[in-house]
Amino acid sequence: MKLIKRHVDKPDYKGLKDRELVKYFRKNGDESAFNELMNRHQQKIYSYIYSMVMNPEIANDLFQTTFTKVITKMDDTYNEQGKWIAWVMRIAHNATIDYLRKQKRYIDVSGWSDEDSSTDYFDRMEDESIVDADEKLVEDETRSSLMKHISKLPEEQRSVVLLRHYYEMPFKEIAELTGVSINTALGRMRYALINLRKYFEEEREKEQHAQHG
Amino acid sequence: MHNTDDQKAIRYLMKEMDPSEELEFEKLMREDEDLLIEVESLRATNKKLSALPDLNPPENLVNNISEEAKQAAKQNAGYSFNNILIRSAAAAVILASLAGGYYYFDTVPAGAGTENIANGQTIEPWVDRNNILRYAGEEPSTAETTVHPDLLESYDKLQLVSEPMGDPNPTNRILLTGSSN
Lengths: 213, 181
Description:
The complex is a heterodimer of chains A (213) and B (181). With 213 residues, chain A is mostly helical. Helix content of chain A is 77%, strand content 0%. Chain A is built from 10 helices and no strands. The termini of chain B are far apart. The model of chain B has no long low-confidence stretch (mean pLDDT 76).
């Protein structure tokens, strides 16, 4: 008896748009479509989360939490009219901000002096983890100091900078995502750049002092 | 530098201005040296952001998530299959009822609605004057024979009223009443 091999044509996932991949996953339960979506966006999402929390283990947890929500909520809350990645970024952003706020509350109640919490609380967090993460993941010195300075920014300024950098998100979308007006989002970007400039200058001065001393 | 200029500086740097606004802002920078210095300084800092690293999540984490997606896809598929089964069954039941109903009304002969009860008496369904369908225990013919004589006798009691009392407008009328008073 001749066996007839049934050949099922799989779509060319790389050529499909995000929206089409989402449809394949939702309607046909096609996990390959989901994997393609992951491949496309995982780096940016992970980089954003990591740069926000500066700790690999926490970044991993938040990344996993984000995608668990994406998988379980896609049928209920994702509207196919909108961009899938913007929806995922909202989940990642909210998970990250929730974590940071909980951490901040924890630090506040555990007796740290809190005169300028909005600018320095990342300094007061586990500094070691920032240094460790930088040593492991960022070899370049400029990159290392950049990450350190980014981590010193208040969370709302940091998230605007990172959303803009990793997603090239228009300020209108950043404003929607973070729940503020466009002017506030633009203002946060400006203050973030001013703060970073200040941190780089302070670093340079320290280096100059060290060389002369 | 005004607050609006600050906003404009960032919009200019982030390329969020339309061309005419851009030209206008460049003209403004040529006229205001402080603004030009500020914009260039912010531009230099913004350039440093390009060194931000692109980081990949650990492979085992990605595999875990893929596995989770696979499980969800399977569950979804199972759920859809069950849904299809339930819907098909419901559709089959509805179709069967419709076909049965059609068959019944199409094939039952006229007069088949007459019911035979145990003692051999035949009761036919009938409709009363209020359009209510009646079956057993009510026989319109016997009820009519008891009511009809009373109805006839009631006409005998009617009397002509000759002197209407307390009527301000004395016109001739016939008042019919059921009582002898």
